[in-house]
From TrEMBL, chain A:
Record-given protein name: BHLH domain-containing protein
Gene3D superfamilies hit by this protein: Helix-loop-helix DNA-binding domain (4.10.280.10)
Predominant location: nucleus
Keywords annotated in UniProt: Nucleus, Transcription, Transcription regulation
Record's compositionally biased regions (Low complexity): 29-39
Taxonomic lineage from the root: Eukaryota, Viridiplantae, Streptophyta, Embryophyta, Tracheophyta
UniProtKB/TrEMBL annotation, chain B:
InterPro entries on file: bHLH_dom (IPR011598), HLH_DNA-bd_sf (IPR036638), PRE (IPR044293)
Parts forming coiled coils: 52-86
Any one Gene Ontology BP term: regulation of growth
Stretches assigned to the BHLH domain: 6-62
Molecular function GO terms recorded: protein dimerization activity
PROSITE patterns the UniProt entry points to: BHLH
Compartmental location: Nucleus
Domain of life of the organism encoding this protein: Eukaryota
Protein name, entry field: BHLH domain-containing protein
CDD domains referenced in this protein's UniProt entry, alphabetically: bHLH_AtPRE_like (cd11442)
GO cellular component terms, semicolon-separated: nucleus
Keywords attached to this entry: Coiled coil, Growth regulation, Nucleus, Transcription, Transcription regulation
Amino acid sequence: MASLISDTEPPSHLHPTSTDLVRRKKRLSVSSSSASSSLTTGDGDSHARWRSEKQQRNYSAKLIQALRQVRLSSSSAAAATSSPPPTAQKRGKAVREAADRALAVSARGRTLWSRAILSNRIKLKFRKQKRQRPAAIPAVITTGSSSSSSGGRSKKRRVTVAKLNKKSIPTVNRKVRVLGRLVPGCKKESVPVILEEATDYIQALEMQVRAMKSLAELLSGSDLAPQRG
Amino acid sequence: MSSRRSRSSRQTGASMISEDQIDDLVLQLHRLLPELGNNNRRSGKVSASKVLQETCTYIRNLNKEVDDLSERLSQLLESTDSAQAALIRSLLM
């Protein structure tokens, strides 16, 4: 099987179309052996990591298994230990947690947030998502021309970060703190750690959204299929 | 990643990390964001705080989308029981 790793596509077009995902899922059993042979090659760049085919197959498989377990635990809700009570919200939350756990596992424990998700699960705590305080103070933008220019890295145009002067540093710090509260497990980390975790977390979330959307379309599409007895 | 550590003149007392590193990370973050308003007319600088603000909004949106999708999936999972079991079995085999 050729080229399992799709290289860094531009993030603006996310269209692994649902047919793609269906085809990928159908080839799960065949490709699982070959997927294990081609190990994480796109590790240096986090972009490639979350967009590779192998990663998506990995996650889809785990997601399906996790969802099956949720379904089984909810169907046998008689005396199960952690069965969600029959309310829609609780079941939705159970699905979300299962999906997050599958996501965290496919991160292979290299990131903070994935470890936080898994350890929170073990501690039987729910992940709290605090609301952000409205940051109404606008930042001072100084277009200093001597700021760092990353010419070789940005793809099409030269984008640089505006120079951080003394007035904007506490603002930036505060926003980074807020961001750290959004990403699981990064509430007390330093600024560069939070930024790095956020980039990885965003890509993982994007992949999760794509996978769940395709799965939902798949299931609802089969719903319209001829009814079974 | 960043080999330009020469400009570490201003070190905030809390983090002791050079500005260059933070700029690099912010740029990386900016590239991930959906580029709605950042068309070619902003071809110059990006404000770090704006990038962070958009990042927070984007993460919250993604979380909300995942929540909605998981609710929808939970409804789908319980509604079609036998059909879905057959489907999943066929997917996994």
